[in-house]
Amino acid sequence: MNEAQVIVVGAGPVGQSAALLLARWGVQVLVLDQRPGRGSGGSKSICQQRDVLDIWAAAGAGRVAEEGLAWTTARTYYRDRELFSWTFEREGPLPPCVNISQARTEQILDEAIAGQPLIEVRWDHEVTGLSQDGSGVTVHCGQRLLRAPYVLVCAGARAQGIRASLGVAFSGESFEDQFLICDIKADLPGWESERRFYFDPVWNPGRQVLIHPCPGGTYRIDWQIAPDFIPTDVDISRKIRQIIGDRPYELLWHSTYRFHSRIASRMRAGRVLLAGDCAHLVAPFGARGLNSGVPDAENAAWKLAFALNGWAGPGLLESYHAERHAAALENLEITSATMRFLAPRTVEERMRRRAVLEGGRMEEVDSGRFAEPFWYVDSPLTTPEPGRPFLGRPPKGALCPPAPGVILPDLPLPGGRLREFTRDGFLVLLGDMCDSSLFVQVLGKVITAPLAVRGLAEMDGTGSLAERLGAGPDEAWLIRPDSHIAAIIPHAGPESVAAAVSRALGGSPDT
Fold first, then answer.
1. What is residue 342's predicted lDDT score, i.e. its pLDDT?
2. Which terminus of the chain is less hemmed in, N or C, by CB atoms within 10 Å?
3. How far apart are CA 465 and CA 254, in angstroms?
């Protein structure tokens, strides 16, 4: 047996992130993986979105953002004609996204784990089943039995046995077309900071090609290929040459795969939570795989920590399923629509796609809407405010105006970033007309969870933060430990803020 408070199953980037975030809350973590050790591999999941970089920075893995290649422009082509391009809006010190190989990301996360005494990693531990009771979960690794109060499963898409032992279904569909992916090293002037997406190029007629720049003069190329096509070395060389011409290049890695769209029926089963590919699979166009799995890990980590410390009400752990399952459903809807556009299955769908591409209308061409944080507008933890409605998804690449449920803008402050002040518990931000000392006095008596109260004017020393956020002088903003806005309360008093905190804690027993 062991003394872990949480057992994390799976040492991929989602499991690694979860372990680091749990340890940040002071939780003892045991990570299990069926492999004999960290394997080598190609680029795999390469494109990491700003809000995931923010999570990794909080977990002690800020080097992902530092080492990654920050591309800024996305170009879309139809055959040999550029249809349009778009760029990200910049928000704060972190880049909108970076490209970096999954193998290097895992190395950086491993290095952070090695410096964390609260985390133990055990390789060669295949989990063959789970059983649970009112006080904990027993993890079966063959004849070995391990036990902890909670288990977080990040074991990837092939965790059929674990899902079955929990009674969790994993329904969905698989797409017939294959995709060939290659990592190459080459000198491609002008391509170093641009993502390029080609519909129906002459060198891959009827299908698509996606090209991403990566660090160190390397590029990741994805070709959509026929279901029965088995590419040879000659085929791969020919395909690369069709794109880069006669320039010298080095082939670093290649593989083929198919896309799947599947979602778990439940992401919480008692004391067991599911995260990452174990809970949802989506097509990678838009980079919504790992960029959804890491927020799963963060959402699970702070809620498990609060449950273990007795800071939360009974609804907090269930809100993990409510919030992250809704996020998975949204990603599934968006990526499935993209795949229907990329791989039309009917004559009508093919005719519509051709008409859209020939028309070149940006708003109708679907090459994958880039990953965004899921906004918990309808979460049971969010206190709605009619004066601050959620305005819907902003245009591609744009930022979302603050509202309850939306993630807090990551604005620069003296000595850091705004979100760096949100990671140690709940944060109450107050306008100039609110008496901070009164809020501290009242909230300190009714809330046991970690909570800080700060005036907006004192946060940046200039008084401009409220203006940049659009916060009123009599408002209180309640920010969750994952930087999402739980409430924006006009004419705020300590009692109304305490009620919003109680709601955000799943019904705190101490209020």
1. 85
2. N
3. 48
Token pair 């166009």 is at which residue? 285
At residue 397, the pLDDT reads 66
Degrees (nearest 5) of the Cα angle 503, 507, 511? Answer: 95
Put simply, whether the predicted model's pTM sits higher than 0.85 gets the answer: yes
DSSP 143-211: TEEEEESEEEE---TT-HHHHHHHT--EEEEEEEEEEEEEEEEE--TT-TTEEEEEES-TTSTTSEEEE
Burial of 458 (C-beta count, 10 Å sphere; 0-12/13-18/19+): exposed
**How many C-beta atoms surround the C-beta of residue 151 within 10 A?**
30
Q: Which amino acid is at 96?
A: P
Dihedral (CA of 235, 336, 384, 302) sign: negative
Q: Are 154 and 18 in contact (CB under 8 A)?
A: yes
Give the strand pairing for 150-153 and 6-9.
parallel
Pairing between β-strand 6-9 and β-strand 29-32 as defined by DSSP bridges:
parallel
Q: At what angle do helices 315-342 and 347-359 cross, to 10 degrees?
A: 80
**What order do you get walking across the sheet with 73-78 strand by strand?**
81-87, 73-78, 194-199, 208-214, 218-225, 170-186, 249-264, 280-281
List of the chain residues with pLDDT < 50: 1, 509-511
Query: In Å, how far are 58, 157, 170, 232 from 320, measured between CA atoms?
Result: 20, 19, 18, 45
Q: What are phi and psi of 174, to 5 degrees?
A: -120, 145
Domains recognised in the chain with CATH numbers? 6-66+97-170+261-338 (3.50.50.60), 173-259 (3.30.9.10), 412-504 (3.40.30.120)
Cα separation values, 33 from 39, 83, 121, 123, 295, Å:
12, 45, 8, 5, 21
Pairwise CA distance, residues 417 & 280, whole Å: 31
